[in-house]
């Protein structure tokens, strides 16, 4: 402040009377970044209020005129001298609601500051800042506080800021390209907040304590700003949305480019050129008043029935359309993905928001209109529903819930009340609570309120809406309890004491929130405003008394959530369309064999096809597409060997999403299971035709499956020329896609379980060891596979690759880059066929299970992400596992799988195998072939498992147990032991022993005479498998399936397969530790046990310590 003598006296005397005298007469001058401004003193007639200063009409951005029309705001220019800020600047051009005349100016980006402390140089402290964002349906209103005055906020120690932002077509035209990228009005708000950050200290405000507050469209803007952390981080420290959210049906435009084209057609005489590229240049030349007049006169057909007729609203911005996108995805998706600013947030609604809707529909002035609305109820409300409910809404149920069987008549108070409540919920309350729930799920601290104080003189309800006879608080009438109402240029009107008391308490809540992030920091009991949680749904009911309650909206919100579940065919869309980062995808509705409806989106590309120069390289992001892409069937399988030929296509990097219902912001997010298929890293796919998710889907989880590159195309390793593991990196790339997009399908990106079987299980284990996967999943399930299994890691990958090159005439000595370039030019089929017949040594050909091209530790290359930075055994021993819960186990006779390749029951073959353990068994052990103790080690194994006897029918099952351990169980034993030592997260261990009618491998291969559960036999108890006949519902196999599905679904939801007692399960599956060694024995009767295969585990521990010097 420039009045130094007065400040000097204050600093000496500190006399309140003298302070008031000095402050009551000055026109203060403040220094800003752009120059100096002079404000005015607001003298209060009421003793309980204090004088303050108003600085109005300060430009915070350049005038958005000429070439700047429709574009993002630009920083304001500086000025010389002292700018007069004693009167408000022009309001943004708009149509007056009452007169229907166009008023205002395009040069309107002004900001206003109201403060009792225009400089901190003498006060010694900074004050919290409240930034007010005005309402007006995105098409009208202004920022300067003349009718609504901030007197009480200032009295409670707040600095208040307000501003104008562009409205209607000038603020929200979106052509989905760089000419008009959209949301200019929202970006004006960001620019205003930047101005506050840079300048508010000059007015006594604290730039580190800025709370944004808005009502109606202003409340929705507050929410939108929280959904743009890339632009608003550091600018906002708290937020309050009153009667508005980004989920409200009136707060977002769909197909914004079509609205731009419709406006151009309306202005055809001024814009005769029909070229799409000419839309914006022409509209930029049209007089602003003509644009405003035309923006409401050519509504698209779907707006004809709407109570809200604006079509230029916030909208999702097209990728690449502008340099600083504000709304990058659908609001629901952003919240589900937790891509929002996690600052304390207050949101709420009034008890009868719908009064305004009734008024705007002219039902108050024209009672005959009620009959027309009743007759057209279905059409009217379908047009008002957000996209997720528009076709699935059973309007008859809605009408019955709110209106009963009564006709909708103006002279029926109960019918009017029900209709008002219906409108309240549809337009404001349900979207508000749904947004609160999503924000709370995403980690924000949220407070919810219902304003129900129907006071003495509700100005809007009585004067504007003409609805004084309708009970409840109308939209906007709660503003009188935050601001003082006054005629422009006049002091606030006097009011009854009880009205002032409600306002005083509400303003105090806001001041507390702005100062401490808690509206009631020192209160307890019924008046304590409790944090909203999805379980309790606490809220504060504001009336003459302020009382805390649970379950906001009660049965009303439950009604809408039930509608959103889409449990019947009539309530669901046949082909739901979802927006992912690359564009729109159309799915289909399916009926599960478990009797529930679900939705599938299949064959969605998560990466660019790895063709040509991309072969053997890490995956890259897919190209976006125009229009709606069909996702109605599985994509191509990755190239693989089948029978005696190669099948599949290199363009194979697809994901499939199966969800229990169509996405809706009314419903909670679903936990997600991401499934990695098995197949030895050389075969398989994520197709639902192989493993159908029917049973898991009916447990309310989302199931995602994926393809990844296999064999030589996924695991070629030649040091820097091909560092390896692109197949595993494909899996990671798909998981990143899931993180970015699953919210669009109703999934929770913060609740993802990575699961797999066989090679998929080994993949899961390897991902738990990889630095690339931190944060991508919160739980893991590994069934019958670990990274320590002998078939899961290449031992001589370079030699294998060179052998392949020689077979394809691609040898180039040690010029590995030339080798890879030659292989890059070979047909995919030739690569697959050659790889099938290539092995580095005869020993590898003789192994029990041998897959040539599988994972290996990465070769480090600068600029290329490393999946496996060290040998797996080293990573396991060093406890490099991520700290995520892990459920893992194996089937009792995994080795039955090997009977498909070698008939150990044939006496000739048994004799040959028995005589060549050094060739057939040794390669699968982590014992060096150069060890002097090889024969001793092999004899130790024969002695333990077979009592030193030869392989015969008498020792066949013991031999199979040994192979089960070597190929599968031992690697799982060791991994679990080391994870338990680190004790980073719970481990659940199991043994699967069911031998029944759904044992997949044994039945399709007709090996049912060998007891025990074979490799992959558990798949029939989780998935619908087309090769298996279904079983009677009352059969033991069906019971086993129910139990498996329930436990796996529980784990996906909670990280605990038996979180509560369930008579279906009947036992508590307790976590494994090295002290308790708990596991679940999954047989026809579930049984909780300890010390799984104790003697065998102890044998392998001693074996590897003795013959491989390993820490177990």
Shape: elongated
SS content category: alpha/beta
Biggest sheet strand line-up? 3-4-8-11-9-12-13-14-15-17-18
The share of residues in helices is 25-40%
Number of helical segments with 4 or more residues: 35
Average pLDDT for all residues: 88
The major pleated sheet works out as: 11 strands, mixed
Please report the total strand number as a whole number. 34
List segments where confidence is low: pLDDT < 50 over at least 5 consecutive residues: 1-25, 298-307, 567-571
Task: Give the radius of gyration.
Answer: 35 Å
Distance between the amino and carboxyl termini: 74 Å
Approximate strand percentage: 15-25%
Organism: Gryllus longicercus
Domain Carboxylesterase type B: 27-560, 575-1100
GO molecular function, one term: carboxylic ester hydrolase activity
Signal peptide: 1-24
Topology:
Layout: H1 4-13, H2 16-23, E1 29-31, E2 36-38, E3 40-42, E4 52-59, E5 82-84, E6 94-95, E7 102-103, E8 110-115, E9 127-133, E10 148-149, H3 151-155, E11 159-163, H4 168-172, H5 184-199, E12 205-215, H6 217-226, H7 229-232, E13 238-242, H8 256-266, H9 279-285, H10 288-294, H11 331-336, E14 345-350, H12 354-360, H13 369-375, H14 377-384, H15 395-403, H16 413-441, E15 446-451, H17 459-464, E16 484-485, H18 497-516, E17 539-542, E18 546-549, H19 554-564, E19 577-580, E20 583-586, E21 588-591, E22 597-605, E23 628-630, E24 640-642, E25 645-647, E26 654-659, E27 670-676, H20 694-697, E28 702-706, H21 711-715, H22 726-741, E29 747-757, H23 759-769, E30 779-783, H24 797-807, H25 816-824, H26 828-836, H27 842-845, H28 872-877, E31 886-891, H29 907-915, H30 917-920, H31 934-946, H32 956-982, E32 987-992, H33 1000-1004, H34 1036-1054, E33 1078-1082, E34 1087-1090, H35 1094-1107
Parallel strand pairs: 2-5, 9-11, 9-12, 12-13, 13-14, 14-15, 15-17, 20-23, 27-28, 27-29, 29-30, 30-31, 31-32, 32-33
Antiparallel strand pairs: 1-2, 3-4, 4-8, 6-7, 8-11, 10-16, 17-18, 19-20, 21-22, 22-26, 24-25, 26-28, 33-34
Helix pairs in contact: 12-16, 32-35
